[in-house]
Design a protein that fits this description.
Elements (H helix, E strand, L loop, with lengths): L9 H22 L33
Length: about 60
């Protein structure tokens, strides 16, 4: 018994175009450099807290 011939529908062509567009966009995103997330990188000195008044070089002052 012969297989029935299947002709693509117009809606199939629209789906194929959508998929190809999604693949193109995905490839563009994948070729971009990795984003800089600043994780683990010190970009500035932290603000001193009220408890750190008189502290120098990370050392606490000795109690008097």
């Amino acid at each position: 018994m012969a297989k029935p011939t299947r002709y693509p529908l117009q809606s199939d062509e629209k789906h194929v175009q959508q998929i190809r567009k999604a693949i193109r966009e995905s490839l563009e995103v994948l070729t971009l450099p990795r984003p800089d997330t600043f994780l683990g990188r010190k970009t500035h000195e932290p603000f001193p807290s009220e408890d750190d008044v008189g502290v120098q070089d990370g050392q606490r002052p000795k109690p008097a």
